[in-house]
Design brief:
3 strands; citrate synthase activity; Citrate_synth-like_sm_a-sub; binds acetyl coenzyme *A; 56% helix; Citrate_synthase_AS
């Protein structure tokens, strides 16, 4: 019915909503969040059930196509992804050109952007078949590009994908395997990483997803839109938070582990940082994903026999923050990133790969949201208004008079 945007523009009025705190940019049938109750559902299915019972590719199918796949559909989807895991040889050479110390997120976004150069046969956003093949290519190639970005950073040779392995196993092997030695999959690691990808797979109109939609609203192709999403995820207030949490925990540990002193410094703003991994624009309650990750972190570290003093520090931080008025009043709870870094670290990922792992998990959400946007007849090019606060009209002064 009522188009408020049209109404306001007719009256010459605009709403100012910095950070889009209260402004919906679209309608969507993909992900439901009730931030006050701490509820998250993909296509109606509670995140707890999907995390426990589903696999990442099954969830990717669900997000993108709207329904859980039947067995034959899942097999077909998985096979088509396996068919496209290789990246072009020319693209493999890109990685030699990046500086060794490049951040893997910068390499990842460049890689995704470059896909537009190789697949010019399938860039039309309105051709269903082309969108389908681009979807499969992205899902298939992102782990390969991500693993290459890691190998580049440590100066190791890259490995070709092994399609006898599952999606996550293949990524683990390409990341940690060596061409000289057979790589042994650790089933605990593979299962947990798959589950973490499920937890990250979509989160409605967050910063990176909104970026994907905004870029896509200009009818830019899927690769161009998703590479913009990767860049939006790079920042420490969004996907970069998992890296920032580990940096923070390491700092507290190096300073002698005084958690109370750190919380005090956060509150009086002398710590120079927020309590990373805490707080969320939408959740004013425990992030349901954080609850799942917290339990997984404890189990995984135990199963992998990796005691980590940082886990104790994280748990103490949580306990102190949850009983402190500052955090209680502001409804600040741990978000998904508070414990994920500890698991990634136990698996052997360096801190700079953490946000890349987030990107791998979020990919199906970006794709599903882009497809929903492009197929929605109500979609218009995203073009926010502004409230101008600059100078009123001024007379131009010639250079010699300034
Ligand atoms: N530590 C300390 N104080 C905080 C924190 C925190 N982590 N988060 C918010 N606050 C405080 C703010 O200082 C502000 O207090 P004030 O009213 O006294 O000024 C109040 O809580 C509200 O904070 P806003 O910044 O207005 O909340 P917003 O919704 O804009 O920010 C965000 C949400 C960015 C996630 C914020 O909580 C934050 O910076 N958290 C740390 C970074 C982080 O973990 N990001 C990951 C987000 S989840 C994700 O991307 C998967």
């Amino acid at each position: 019915g009522l188009d408020i945007g049209k109404l306001l523009s007719k009256t010459g009025k605009v709403t100012l909503d910095t950070g889009f705190v209260n402004t919906a940019s679209c309608t969507s049938a993909i992900t439901y969040i009730d931030g006050d109750a701490g509820i998250l559902r993909y296509r109606g299915y509670p995140i707890e059930q999907l995390a426990e019972k589903s696999s990442f590719l099954e969830v990717a199918y669900l997000l993108i196509h709207g329904e859980l796949p039947a067995e034959a559909e899942l097999n077909e989807f998985t096979d088509s992804i396996k068919e496209h895991t290789l990246i072009r040889e020319e693209m493999r050479r890109f990685f030699d050109g990046f500086p060794r110390d490049a951040h893997p997120m910068a390499v990842l976004s460049s890689g995704v952007s470059a896909l537009s150069t190789f697949y010019q046969d399938a860039l039309d956003p309105f051709d269903q078949d082309q969108v389908e093949i681009s979807t499969v290519r992205l899902l298939a190639k992102l782990p390969t590009i991500a693993a290459h970005s890691y190998k580049n950073s440590i100066g190791h040779p890259t490995l070709y994908p092994d399609n006898s392995l599952s999606y996550v196993e293949n990524f683990l092997r390409m990341t940690f395997g060596l061409p000289t030695t057979p790589y042994e999959i650790d089933p605990v690691q593979a299962k947990v990483l798959d589950m973490l990808f499920v937890l990250h797979a979509d989160h409605e109109q967050n910063c990176s997803t909104s970026t994907v939609r905004l870029v896509g609203s200009s009818q830019a192709n899927l690769f161009a839109s998703v590479s913009a999403g990767v860049n939006a995820l790079f920042g420490p207030l969004h996907g970069g938070a998992n890296e920032a949490v580990l940096t923070m925990l390491n700092r507290i540990n190096a300073d002698g582990g005084d958690v109370n002193a750190f919380v005090r410094a956060v509150k009086d703003k002398s710590a120079g940082t927020r309590l990373m991994g805490f707080g969320h624009r939408v959740y004013r309650n425990y992030d349901p994903r954080a609850a799942i990750v917290k339990n997984a972190a404890r189990d995984v570290l135990e199963q992998m026999h990796r005691a980590d003093p940082l886990l104790d520090i994280a748990m103490q931080l949580e306990e102190i923050a949850l009983s402190d008025d500052y955090f209680v009043e502001r409804k600040l709870y741990p978000n998904v990133d508070f414990y994920t870094g500890l698991i990634y670290k136990a698996m052997g990922f360096p801190t700079r790969m953490f946000t890349v792992l987030f990107a791998l998990g979020r990919l199906p959400g970006w794709i599903a949201q882009w497809r929903e946007m492009i197929n929605d007849p109500a979609t218009k090019i995203g073009r926010p208004r502004q409230v101008y606060t600059g100078a009123t009209e001024r007379e131009y002064l010639p250079l010699e008079k300034r």
